[in-house]
TrEMBL record:
InterPro entries: AAA+_ATPase (IPR003593), ABC_transporter-like_ATP-bd (IPR003439), ABC_transporter-like_CS (IPR017871), ABC_transporter_ATP-bind (IPR050166), P-loop_NTPase (IPR027417)
ABC transporter domain segment(s): 7-238
Pfam families: ABC_tran
GO molecular function terms attached to this record: ATP binding; ATP hydrolysis activity
Keywords assigned by UniProt, alphabetized: ATP-binding, Nucleotide-binding, Transport
Name of this protein: NitT/TauT family transport system ATP-binding protein
Listed PANTHER family: ALIPHATIC SULFONATES IMPORT ATP-BINDING PROTEIN SSUB (PTHR42788:SF13), TAURINE IMPORT ATP-BINDING PROTEIN-RELATED (PTHR42788)
Family affiliation: Belongs to the ABC transporter superfamily.
SUPFAM superfamilies: P-loop containing nucleoside triphosphate hydrolases
Lineage of source species: Bacteria, Pseudomonadati, Pseudomonadota, Alphaproteobacteria, Hyphomicrobiales
Gene3D superfamilies per the UniProt record, alphabetical: P-loop containing nucleotide triphosphate hydrolases
Length: 250
């Protein structure tokens, strides 16, 4: 029997209405499934609607047409089953790392599970030593680790990531990619990850959803069966990058 996908986009359109300007169709008939435990990258040129797709999946905006389901539930707004990590770390600047993780979590006042939070700060993201620092005392990579710890502390089934490593230097970016892969392979969470880096998509994804712009339409779905551990710049991954670029050019 076929499993219910963790996330399903079914003929999703998005039209934005702006004052004194013609409406703009950003997404046109977007349909795809994300299976349980899959790592999917949304890839495409600037403005093709990657963030819009992610925001619709998060329930932050409603599509103009079509439906989105997470498991068996229709997405009508944000939910604890879906955690979001943005490019701009979205930490409260006046709270410490630990307070950010605790405040962002769903356990609510009086029911803070310190052991669980310390696990996500420590073992999972390596942020335990920095738990009492304010965001301004952290590097970009550390801020993003803290944001990931906060999302994981909610134990979402689906993690939606909008160019989470886009603002980081290449070394930090690779380190965080590897940490994310470790988290993913240990937890088998379902991840939908937005990027405009072909290399990043080829390294991380099991499935690459390639989009084209104006309006954003699905161009191709490319499966990447390369086994883990993957090696950057290996023949296999370069082959995947080539396949992606070939489709991009068509
Ligand atoms: N609220 C809005 N109102 C009007 N237009 C919008 C709105 N949000 C996004 N857009 C437009 O929709 C298009 C797609 O934007 P989106 O941010 O989803 O693209 P993207 O593929 O994530 O781009 P980038 O890679 O540059 O982040 C853009 O042309 C953008 O200007």
């Amino acid at each position: 029997m076929e499993q219910t996908p963790k996330l399903r986009f079914d003929k999703v359109d998005m039209v934005f209405f702006r004052p004194n300007q013609p409406p703009v169709q950003v997404l046109k008939s977007i349909s795809f499934d994300v299976g349980a435990g899959e790592f999917v990258c949304l890839l495409g040129p600037s403005g093709c609607g990657k963030s819009t797709i992610l925001n619709i999946a998060a329930g932050l905006i409603r599509p103009s047409a079509g439906t989105v389901t997470a498991g068996s539930r229709l997405v009508t707004g944000p939910g604890w089953d879906r955690g979001v990590v943005f490019q701009e770390y979205a930490l409260f600047p006046w709270l410490t790392v630990r307070e950010n993780v605790v405040l962002g979590a769903k356990s609510g006042a009086g029911k803070v599970d310190h052991v669980r939070f310390d696990h996500f700060l420590g073992v999972t993201t390596g942020m335990y030593a920095h738990k009492d620092k304010l965001p301004k005392e952290l590097s970009g990579g550390m801020k993003q680790r803290a944001a990931i710890a906060r999302t994981l502390a909610n134990d979402p089934e689906i993690i939606l990531m909008d160019e989470p490593f886009g603002a980081l230097d290449p070394y930090t970016r690779e380190a965080l990619q590897d940490q994310l892969v470790e988290i993913w392979s240990a937890s088998r969470k379902t991840i939908m990850f937005v990027t405009h880096s072909v290399e990043e998509a080829a390294y991380l994804a099991g499935v690459v959803i390639l989009l084209k712009a104006h309006p954003g339409e699905l161009k191709a779905v490319i499966r990447n069966e390369t086994r883990w551990p993957r090696e950057r710049a290996s023949e296999e991954l370069i082959g995947i990058e080539r396949a992606i670029r070939r489709v991009e050019r068509t």
